[in-house]
Specification:
The strands form 5 sheets. The chain has a 7-stranded mixed beta sheet, with helices on both faces. It is elongated. Helices cover about 40% and strands about 15% of the residues. The protein is built from 24 helices and 21 strands.
Length: about 575
Amino acid sequence: MLKPKKSVQNMAGYFVPLYERLWDIKIDSNENNYGSCPEVLECLKNTQISDVSFYPFYGELSQQLADFNGFDISNIKITNGADEALQSIVQTYMENGESLLTLDISFEMPVIYAQIQGGNIIRVPFKEKWKFPVADFIRELDNSSVKIVYLASPNNPTGNIIEENDLKNILDKSPDKVVIIDETYANYAGVSYKDFVKRYDNVFIVKSFSKDFALAGMRLGYIISNSENINNLKKVVSPFSVNSLAMKAGICALKNADYFNKIRENILKSGQDLKIFFESLGAVVYDSKANFLLVDFKQKSEFIYNKLRNENIAVKLFKKGSKLENHLRVTIPTFKGVEKIKNVLAPKPFLVFDMDGVLVDAGQSYRIAIARTFKKFSGKEAAPEDIQSAKNLGGLNNDWDLTQYLLKKSGIEIPYNRIVEEFQKIYWNEGNGLINNETPLFNSDLFEKLSKNYNLAIYTGRPAKEALFTLNKFKITKFFSLILTSDDVEKGQEKPNPFGLNQIKNMTIADNYYYFGDTQDDIIAAKAAGYNAIGVLPPQDKSEVLKTLLHEKGANVIINSVNDLLEILEQKNEAVC
């Protein structure tokens, strides 16, 4: 198999979805949610055959950009988005082994382009969120390998701008280096450093039509630099990389530039409103000079992300283990979008469900697996009432523990790992075991109805792969904002320890919490975590004995089936709340 050059082999790359999902609100990529001015669409409707059949000419748009920015046409190079602008600068000036200097948290495409060229990357970390570390940055300029300096103002994803004096100090320190100033978001900040091009020969201003003029789909950007630099870039950039329709859209957008000034005010107002709302939920919202907010929701970030996604709202969640773990980047939507986000994230009662005996009838899966595993090692039958009695004892955190308990009670000592191995062969068997015998204990429309007024979660003693297998099989996974399994709690933290339920509190937003379980351990854990504890009688035991036990452990209410909870919640029974 062919291999790419060495500089490409170990790169992560930047991959995008292949197909479009029709989001109700798409605020994950910093596009302008107001869209382009209406005149742009009218211009495109007037497309002629010649616009499609012949190569484009760039003079008209180049001259408009020169006039718009106060430069000569020789200072302008139109590109296929800001991405091509960045790529062409790196390709033109970077030699193999030279370095690109940037912040450790910034737009990643210049890094990728430098790596393709065989360049090294020097990242300067933020010491204070998100204040530009000018002294550390200038210190790195002494490194003779640095050929290209990449700065974004405002920076993506932090939203901070670089102060003019800090930028001047950097430029004064680096006369022999290429300095890229990415101003993709500068029109939102109202601060541009394009005039530095007239004072420094090594400055390249990169601009885009994507974020402000809302032409992201047209892929249109440009570079402002001195004429000699522009001529050098023209040697590298493909001669017809920008298509004719993008040109028409850009010309029309510039002629109607006042449209952006109007919607900019709306975006700034929406951003302030959204910032106040997120802060009311306990989030840290950093000051941003762009059309997005960087928000630290801490442990609640995944819940917020999933809650929005389940309501068809796309935001950016940064990877676990990264320096931005638990942070969301939220493009500022329209006023209507802000109101929908408020409605989706408004604190609601949180209903948390155990699975086995509550949502799932495991009588023909887990319980048979217990009996068969017991028989494998003992040669005896395990009576159903003995299994239920063991469940009612409490303190047995899963069915492996319960099987071991039954064996020990019969005087048989088997290593725990052997019990687990045999049990899993019978129950799981890589998705081909008795797990396929499980049936739902809920009506088909229950969670559809509940999700309208309540947040929903799962907390189960099952391993994650087994829990998700069954939830996916029943087609209800989408209704749960959070799924906590045995994989998420350490030994000794299982029920009746309230650790897992406390974790759900820490990771979510609600005005009241309920836990639905079928064992005394469920009820004890719920009460210890400050939940409303609801006992649910499993199919195998509807006895008064179990009812009494669950009441004694603190159950607020006991219901015969999870399907009864709608009536209980609608009544707002004093015993529940």
